[in-house]
Design a protein that fits this description.
The structure holds two protein chains of two kinds. Chain A is an all-beta fold. Chain A has one domain: Immunoglobulin-like (Sandwich), CATH 2.60.40.10. In chain A, 0% of the residues lie in helices and 57% in strands. In chain A, the strands form two sheets. In chain A, strands 2, 4, 5, 9, 10 and 11 form a six-stranded mixed sheet that branches. A five-stranded antiparallel sheet of chain A has the order 1-3-8-7-6, with no helix packed on it. In chain A, strand 6 and strand 7 form a beta hairpin. By secondary structure, chain B is mostly beta strands. Chain B has a single domain, classed as Sandwich (Immunoglobulin-like). Helix content of chain B is 0%, strand content 50%. In chain B, strands 2, 4, 5, 6, 9, 10 and 11 form a seven-stranded mixed sheet that branches. Chain B has a four-stranded antiparallel sheet with strand order 1-3-8-7, with no helix packed on it. Classes of the chains: A mainly beta, B mainly beta. At the A-B interface, strand 4, strand 5 and strand 10 of A face strand 4, strand 5, strand 9 and strand 10 of B.
């Protein structure tokens, strides 16, 4: 049972364009949604995160849009740079689980210069 | 930022042998986690640990797995005996308990022959 789903599996955009990565979830008790990025053979690192009290979280070129009613969120990367090329994981956590993270399958993003 | 260390970075063993993966979490962190990532797939939660006890484990945390953190030393994941399907990268993470943010180590790549 996949509780967190991501689409697309892979995405290629040109440098300077906006990349949109999608995520959906099933468990309505999830209350924390971090996005991690991971470069090949490196550990995942927290990029940006949101709680359901907000429907938008912005950090520089990275913005999360959150729709609680539809249980969907998306990560927008504006002015994409080649250095943004990585695999992006959407994750979710619920309070009662002591912060256990449930990860999606990831979106492999490639930025073409 | 805070660093989680993992030793060794790569371990190759024969099926049936015992292996211990070591994690040095961030010094003031209280919650510890192990995740398993098979090449090209998402990370999957194995177990979390707090105050000397396992809080929750997933179905991936087989009877052959055990965790401990004796006297504030390394947080360890022991697999005895190992099986071919245990080949993966194992990530340790830690969290201080006041927020959901988990810091991940660089991973230990385990190869079971």
């Amino acid at each position: 049972q996949q509780q967190v789903r991501q689409s697309p599996q892979s995405l290629t955009v040109w440098e300077g364009e906006t990349a949109i990565l999608n995520c959906s979830y099933e468990d309505s008790t999830f209350d924390y949604f971090p996005w991690y990025w991971q470069f090949p053979r490196e550990s995942p690192a927290l990029l940006i995160a949101i709680r359901p009290v907000s429907n938008k979280k912005e950090d520089g070129r990275f913005t999360i849009f959150f729709n609680k009613r539809e249980k969907k969120l998306s990560l927008h990367i504006t002015d994409s740079q080649p250095g943004d090329s990585a695999t992006y994981f959407c994750a979710a956590s619920a309070d009662y689980n002591q912060g256990k993270l449930i990860f999606g399958q990831g979106t492999k993003l490639s930025i073409k210069p | 930022g805070p660093k989680v260390l993992q030793i060794p970075s790569h371990q190759i063993i024969d099926m049936g042998q015992m292996v211990t993966l070591n994690c040095d979490p961030v010094s003031n962190h209280l919650y510890f986690y192990w995740y398993k990532q098979i090449l090209g797939q998402q990370m999957e939660f194995l177990v979390n640990f707090y105050n000397g006890k396992v809080m929750e484990k997933s179905k991936l945390f087989k009877d052959q797995f055990s965790v401990e953190r004796p006297d504030g030393s390394y947080f360890t994941l022991k697999i005895q005996p190992t099986a071919l399907e245990d080949s993966a990268v194992y990530f340790c993470a830690s969290n201080w308990g006041g927020s959901y943010e988990q810091y991940f180590g660089p991973g230990t790549r385990l190869t079971v022959l």
